Amino acid sequence: MTDYNVDRNGFYGEYGGAYIPEILFKTVENLKEAYLPILESEDFKQAYHALLKDYVGRPSPLYYAKRMSEKYGCRLFLKREDLNHTGAHKINNALGQVLIAKRMGKTRIIAETGAGQHGVATATACALMNMPCTVYQGALDVQRQHVNVERMKMLGATVVPVESGNKTLKDATNEAIRDWCCHPADTFYVIGSTVGPHPYPDMVARLQSVISEEIKWQLKEQVGRDYPDYLMACVGGGSNAAGTIYHYLNDERVRIILGEAGGKGIESGETAASLQVGTIGILHGSRIKVMQTDDGQIIEPYSISAGLDYPGTGPLHCNLYAEGRAQVLAANDNEALKAAYELTRMEGIIPALESAHALALLPKVANQFKPTDVVVLTVSGRGDKDLDTYLKHFE
Ligand SMILES: *Cc1c(COP(=O)(O)O)cnc(C)c1O
Which positions are annotated as active-site residues? Predict the structure, then answer.
């Protein structure tokens, strides 16, 4: 049987690995040796699960969406990560990594952020655990996402606007890596998705796997069996999707459908659908599908959703797509907006624009569903942060 988990060398098929500067070799090697023993220690498990329960508010509900189920001809359940503290799944990962950093004796946290969601989650974890925190963010994103910048500052983080390149996420990541190279001994780099050099994709997937751990017992309780027929999630770097599918990766009874950001259309040149339009390259220390020119320059991604406009996708998902284990479809800006309004009006839930890219696949795949099929779709975050965008497009 195929195993879709990471192999001993940090690869998922031909994707993954750790392509890092010499100066970080020892730091990444230390993390590689430390992360599994820490994750499996009783001390970590107890601290992490206590925070997930009483601080984040887990378990997040698995909600049977009755009206949407009737519309799409299946039994649709929504995994409500939007109800977590700070409004999305990212806090699961940030808390876990800061706990790991503490156990490794690190005294300083750095992070990169695009829209600011991961920056806020990391700044939150650092406030809670009394760790100094520096967040790198592209100068353009600092302007565009000023509310999240204010949040990070209020939480006590130092936000460094990055003026190089296009002044967006890729440039912030480069700057964070530069900082890490200068302070490898005391600094822990908290990466926000299932990207970066091994062991980050596996570490982040394991921290987010609480999502599918809960789906298992919640389904057992609600439908009498512990697996769905379909799992659906949106994909930026891939962390909420990885958490959603983690415990079902090798369970072929469960079909996986992933939604990436089509932007203005995958043929338009203004897209973030890196699994479908990308080619193999090295980005942020990992061999993945990257949107790049013929000579390897990164193409700036575009999506209406700030959390999905990353020019690559994590190695786990690259492999699932290459192997045909996951069906990957793009949802364009207008389709996501429409889906967000539909969920709002039919179920009274305003989703994040990112999550709306998973919802927007329902009309595209409904013809595959039987009425008895159990479909679990992860609502990765809440839409408060996107209200301006929603109102602008639907006045
Ligand atoms: C950041 C973000 C995403 C995309 O990141 P993944 O790592 O692909 O999950 C999706 N939804 C929300 C709400 C986000 O904040």
Answer: 90, 112, 380
